[in-house]
Amino acid sequence: RLSCIRNNIWLASCGVLSSGLAVLSSFGLMLFCGVPFVVTVANAPFLILGVGVDDMFIMIASWEQSLRRKEKSNVKSLLAETYAEAALSVTITTLTDVLAFFIGTWTAFPSVRSFCLYTGTAFVFCYVYTMTFFGAVLVLNHKREQGNRHWLTCMRVDVGKDQAENSCLYNACCIGSCSRQPSQPEGEHPMSVFFKKYYGPFVTNKWIKLLMVLMYGAYLGGSVYGCTQIREGIDLRNLANDDSYVIPYYDDDEKYFSTYGPRVMVVITERVDYWNESVRLGIESCAQNLE
Predict the structure, then answer these.
(1) Where does the UniProt annotation place the signal sequence (predicted)?
(2) Which residues are CB-contacts of 217 (< 8 A; sequence separation ≥ 6)?
(3) Which is nearest to 114 in space by CA: 46, 52, 48, 42?
(4) For labelling alongside 274, which of 37, 193, 198, 263 has CA 20 to 30 A away?
């Protein structure tokens, strides 16, 4: 928002901080419990950030709606109504994510098991911080707005005779308007207006609904066909950069040597007297039998 009072930069920053705290807490707990940290776990913070920011938007949207309905209510009733609306969706999405990743711990691959443990635990901490830490930040931000305080300095923004002599830039930064009048509370968010007035009526049209069903049927059919084309395994060629020297090696190996099958090696684990001719002949005979 352009208003220096209604601006929610710190609120959004605390939402991102909440996800970071969840990552730190989960990683610390898993490392304390001795769960191995593998390189794939380094991707987990990006997943947690996405879910945490999504929960943040749900909480803020519910808070704004509660504020519009009960503008003169106390903070307790506002926060209670916010949790009544937002906590259900946040809880269900968290439960499904946690369940999905904890089921992944049943896999036989240790690296995947570690990744699922770290990420599933991070989702739990993300939920806890959203329901506690971020809720408290919502209340503090509301008190700052109620006190007519600047979003950056938290200093009280007052309009008086001394402000009339200040420059337009000063008033824009410290009041939120060049007109030397305090900025008025904004109405409904433009995105909400778009979905309510335009997108909602559009998708509820009977022809659009029919088109949606047909498109989903085509999508579902393509997905089922794609599942039948899945091949298990991993191609080592896909693990290297496109400009790596490994790529031509794997291409040539596939082109010229794929018909020979995998290479077989024989390892002798015992001490052998290679100077003994009969032992050497025995090794040669063993190799010929294997061939």
Answers:
(1) none
(2) none
(3) 42
(4) 263
Side-chain half-sphere of 152: how many Cα atoms within 13 Å?
Answer: 7
pLDDT for the residue numbered 182: 47
pLDDT at 235: 80
Crossing angle for the helix pair 110-129 and 44-69, to the nearest 10 degrees: 20
> What is the full DSSP assignment across the chain?
---TTT--HHHHHHHHHHHHHHHHHHHHHHHHTT----GGGGGHHHHHHHHHHHHHHHHHHHHHHHHHHSTTS-HHHHHHHHHHHHHHHHHHHHHHHHHHHHHGGGSS-HHHHHHHHHHHHHHHHHHHHIIIIIHHHHHHHHHHHHTTB-TTT--B---STGGGGS-HHHHHHHTS-TTSSPPPPP-S-HHHHHIIIIIHHHHTSHHHHHHHHHHHHHHHHHHHHHHHT---S--GGGGS-TT-THHHHHHHHHHHSGGG-S-------S---TT-HHHHHHHHHHHHHH-
What b/e string do you get for 51-90 counting C-beta neighbours within 10 Å, with b at 16 or more? bbebbbebbbbbbbbbbeeeeeeeeeebbebbbebbbeeb
